[in-house]
Structure formats: structure tokens, C-alpha cells
Amino acid sequence: MPKFHNAWRLCAYLLTVAAILLSIGVAHAAITQESGRRVALVIGNSVYKTLPSLPNPANDVEEVATTLRAAGFDVTIGINVDRIGLEETVRRFLRSTSNAEAGLIYYSGHGIQVGGQNFLVPVDATLETPYDVETQTMPLDLILNHLKQNSRVQLIFLDACRNNPFNAQKFWMAEKLEPVGATRGLARIDSDLGSLIAFSTEPGQVALDGTGALSPYSESFIKRASEPNKEIRQVLTDVRRDVIAMTGGKQVPWENSSLMDSFYFIPAPPPPSVESMQQVSVPEGAAATRLPIAPPHDETGSTLLVTLTQLPQTGKLSFDGKPVEQGAKMPAAALTALTYDSSGVTAGTVGLIGYTVSDPYGQATQGVVAITVSADAGAKLAQLEQQKQVRLADADAYLKTLPRDVDTTIGVGPVTASLPVVPASAAEMTFKVAALPDKGTLRTGDRLIGLGHVLEAADIPGLSYEPQIGTENQPFALTLQAANDDLPPATVTFKPVLDACDTAAAAPLDLQGVTAGKLPNEIDPDAALPACTEAIKAYPEVARFVYQLGRAQLANRDTKTAFATIKKAMDAGHVRAISELSALYLVGAFVPANLDKSSEIAAIGAKKGDPYALYAYGKSLYYGRGTKANTQEGLKLMLQAADLGHTYAMNELGYIFFNGVSVPADIERGIRFYESGLKRDDIYSMNSLGMIYRAGKTVPQDLEKALELFKKAADGGQPYAPRNIGLMYRDGLGVPKDERASITWLEMGAERGDYWSALERAKMAKGDGSNPESLATAAHYFALASAVNRPGTGDPKKQSDKELASLADSAKKKAAEAFSSELTPQELKALPKTKSLNERLVLLAKATWVKRNPRYDLF
User: CB neighbours of 524 closer than 8 A, spacing ≥ 6?
Assistant: First the structure.
């Protein structure tokens, strides 16, 4: 290497070399960079209660979840889940899928195919009767179809093809009794564009559990998916080869792919970061000077290998006291420990060290160090050492300022940690992620951060954390360690929290929500209204808060404002708002009741997979209310709603099958659906089963059990249960006759809007027609019954209208006076004009009932 007596020539030369090398690295980085949110559902069922237990699935998915987290997936995991636990886990996962780049499902456990469909089998399934698939299992298609609507890429892995251990050989599937698949294992699934479906064995064949702690398929998947920079189709090819070898050819994994783009579990990061041009000075005649070379690193903190491609022509380069030869390979950390012997080298001489830094992904970056021998280098080295000590002191002081608790609101996107800027003196330092939350997503800018990743100083202030749904009150620690320096680490604690609006007004089964939610009667508008108003101000882009404000307004009986708010939420993309708006059209809240409009809106929500809309539109189709009847499609949609845990659908299906509505009656099938609702503490299921136990026609009569169920349902706000209790006290059925108790319960039901409670209370008051006061009470409740009688769900014979017409005008006038006393002059004036006393009385009854009570979200 020649001497460079002119500094500008040296700089020009080094800049030219550095520019060439840097351009190579940048071009490669552009090819390998990947980004986007990834979510995964991982389920492993091993310990079955009545079916044969499986040795490996629970172990499988623990390891799979760890592998996927390392690959940047936000993982929702369920191990040995029963049917309700599976349902809750699936819903929690579906809430996380919105706008995901990739959604993945990995299931290990028992599976079954019926009617060409695949079902995941929870640990409490028995599958002993024809009714058990629809109430005990979870259809895979239901999860997959939702995933297709909310993610760009769908990846499904099924290690669930064991032998069929089930006793029943035929199961109900909607309107058909379908046999278990004639072939063994699971049925083939055709993938849509952007999907990959992978089976642990060929469709119709059986997978093996293996002899180790993991199944052959999971063991190979974990190994191959962890290999860096390997495209998923190559991963699966390698898995197939492994499994065939491990099982002696008895098991052949299979997949069906329609992916449009390449997908990498562990994509290659940008190439190693290297100071492409470094200049160092060494003292003339020094035997061993340690070279202050900036260490290379890559974003993921991978182990890097340095190859020395060029050595100085003069002087001696050593590592650990031994001479270094050209072509020598060493760990990246060794680069900072190189020493140079300048004995006999003339001052002003420049020597070059050329080196290549390689990462495990096959990427390489080159660097150059120019060593200048100088008579005054000692002073410069001392200055550099002093600067280093200042840098370390400042970095240490900075790290001590980092420990803090950061509240991170769930479901509003990434929450910035607002960490301070690294001081300028330490701006060239790097920081390694030594500990990381195992749930949620850490980012700096658009870059996903994983365990062991290396952060530049400029990355720290931009760190943000997006907590996983369901992690409220679970603190997670992020620990940063100054790379290449022995400084104490610093820990930032992220504390996921629910926004007060979610706590006060979230909706049950809302697949865009973040928590289990509250039923309408559980919402306190005094808490919910200000909480949701503040949430909208803080997060105007989150449509969920707009919808929940609408729920709070309904709870506050402000139907007009609620209607507009819910419509706004629907227009902003919140799916549950669609079914809420449909319900308002159904009951005529603020707008006239319109079955056609209600059905039309519900159909939109059903296409988007909302459980409430699936139920509402399915019911409309089944009965032909507001749309052309299609019982087959209606039944299918209501079954989907029930699969997602919607108890309204379970109750409707129970009613349909129990009573044989447009299908042959099947008492046991109906009871199974009612019992499914009861397991979820549904008040309507309690009431329906109470009626069955009270009647004792299809099951042994149990009046004590019936009364217990009725009272529990009534305590929960069920509008019809009070009538059933009132009739038991009226008739002395299972309890002593008690007219006063009967009246109390019937009046409670009437006030809740139950037509039949009002009718029965009116009949009791009418008696033999001899008591004027009682007749006025009868007129009151006959009028109320007529006022709350709803088309399609009430009394088509309109008995209350006929009974009201039979009463003397004097009784009706007295009832009208009582109703009128509850209304203001303005409210009375607003009532439509009528010529009939009966019509006037019904209008008064409706107006006072609406003023006293109606929460349209309750009835």
C-alpha cells in the first residue's frame, strides 16, 4: 500500500471503495426486507376426558408457539381446551386478525370429517350421539373463512389426522344426518388465492404420534420453520422429507397452496451493518496497539463471521497475541480485539485491512480500515479513550433513566413508549434486546423487534408496543443491554390496560372488540357515556369506540342519538354496529319498524361473519321475515352463530328442533341446544329448559328445577321468566298457591314488555267482572299487552284487543286517566288523534311504558 501524503487522496480512495461495498449491501437489503403484522392461533389437545388421550399435541404446540413467536407472530394459544374454552380462544384470536399481513392456524389433536367438512375436537367432546358434532366441536371452515376476510395470507397446519375413535357413525349437519367420512383422517381443503393448507398426512390418511415428546410432523415443522431465510414451500418440502424418513414412509405430509407471494418464517434481515470506511491512527514504533475498530452487527443480533480479505503490507496484525493471516476467519467481536505492531514502520505510512462480515442468511458486507502510522498517534488514542469513557458514562446514565412503567391501551394499535433520546455522546452505541414480552408486538417504526435484536441509538425513542388482546393486567418486561459494553441493563415494563370505554360498554361476541363485553342490562350509562366520549377524542380512528358510545346512549334511553352514532360506527367499518342497526329497525327504535330493512342490513353483517348478524339474518331467512324464506341457508347461518358462542342462536335452534318448526321435531336435539346455552349462563336457555322441566312431557317433570331456572333467569333480566313463575304460584304448581306472589311476578314480566305476562295479569284482574277497581286494572294490562304485542313474535290472535273491547267504557276511562297522569301535556299532545277509546288507551299504555322503561337494546 502506498503512502498517502495528501489527506484528500486518501479520503477519495477510501470513499470509492466504501461506496462500491455499501451499494452491494443496500441492494441485497431491498430484496430481503419483509414487514407486516402476523397473528397465529395454536391449539393442542392431548388430555381428552372420554376419547383416547394423545401423548404429544400439548407438547407440540408449546414448541410451535415458541417457534412462531420467534418468527414475529402474535400467538394466541390454547392447550387442552374444552368446547367453551376453544370457543373463547378462537374468538380471542379472531379479534386479533383485523388487517393482518399473515394469519396462521396450527392445530394438533383429534379431528373429524363429516359431510366433507373438518371439525376440531375439544377435550370434553364425547361424540357418542348424532347431535354431538354440532354442539361439541368447532368447524375449521368457520375460522378459516373469517381469516380470509381479515388477512392477506392464510397458513393452516393440521396435525389432527388420527384414527376415528368416536362411537357414533352419523352426525347431524344442519338438515342432514351425515356419515363420518368414509376415509380415515381429515378431508381435503381447497385453498383460495393467498392460502396454504398443510396436513400432517395425506387427506383421508392417518398421522402418527411418534415415540418422542413431539409428533413427527411437529418436530420437523419446528426445526424447519426456524431455519432462516427459507421460503415456506421449501420448508414444507423439507418437512415432508423428514416425516417420511421418521415414519418409514407410513406418513406423507401434504399441502395445497395458492400463495401469490413468497413467505418466510424467518426472513433475512438487512445485511450486516459495517462501518465501510474507518480510519485509525497508531503510534510510530509501538509493539502492540489495540485498534479502535467499530464492531459490525445486524438487526437480529445474529452471530457474525469476519473474514480478513486484505492485510497491511507493513507492520504486523495480531489477535490474542498471535499473528493473523490473510483469509483468517474469526467472530465479529474479535475484530475489536485486533492489535497492530508498528515497529519499523515509517510515520505517514497507511496500511489497509479489508474484511468481509457474513451472517447466517448467506449475506455479506465488506469493510475497510485504514491504519495510519503517526508520530503523535498516542495523544490521539488517549483522546479516543477519553471519549470512550465519556460515552460509557453517558450511556450508563441514560440506561438508568429508562426503567419505567408504560401503560399500553389494548386494541388501539402500537402505543409509543416515549423513551428519551440517547445523548449525542453515545449516539454511535447499539443496544441489544436481552428480554422481550412473549405476547404482543414490539416495533421501532415499521420494523418488528425480536429477542436478541440490536437497536441503534436512534431507534430507542421510536419504540412502541402493541399489546395482545386478553393480556390486561399482565405486565411485560423489555430489557435493553448496551451492546459490546459491560453496563447494567435497563428494563421497561409495559402494562396492557383496557380503555375505560371497553370496560364499560364493550359488546359480547364482538370480533372487533378486545374483551368479553357486557350485556345491555349490565351497562351503566353514567360510566359508559363519558368514558366512550373520551375514547373517541383520544382515538378518533377506532370505530369500536363509536359503536360502544352508541350502546351507552341506548342504555341511557337516548335512542335518536344512539341510532345516528351506531350508523356512524357502521359506516366507519365496525361490523357489530351493522347488526345493532338491524335490531333497531326490527323493533322500531327511532325509526318505524321495518322487517325488510332490518333483514337487508343483517345480511351485510352476516357476510362479514358477525355472530349477531349471522343469527339475525339466519332467523329472517328461516322464517321468511323481511326476506324470501330459505330454511336451509337460515339454519346454516344460525348454526354458525351458535358455533361462535351466540346463545340467541342456540335458543332459536333449540326451539326449532324441539317444536319441529319447518323440520321434523327432534326433542333431544332441541334440548342439546338449550343445554349449550345453559352452560354459557344464558337467561333465555334457563327459561326454555325451565318450561321443559315444568311440563315434564319429554323429560321427567322436575318442578323444583324448573322454578330454580325461572328465578335465575328472572334475576338476570329475562322478560318471560317472571310469567312462568307467576303462573306456578297462581296454579300452585310445585309451590303453594299464592295470588299475591303471582301478581307480583306477572306485573314484573309485563313491565319488561312481555305480552303474555300482561295478558295473564289482566285476566286475573278481570275475574268475574264484578269489581270496578279490578276491571280498571284489567283495562290497564289488556291495553299494555296490546301495546307491546310485536308482529311475528307476539300473539297473532290479538287476544288482548278482543278482551279490551269487551270491557265497559268506565273501566277503560279510569285506566286512561291513570296513564294520562304519567304524561306531560306536551307528551299527550304528541299522541296521534283517534276516535276509538280502545285505540286511545293502547296509545297511552305504549307512551307511558316507553317513558318508564324501554331500553330498545333489551327487548
Answer: 504, 555
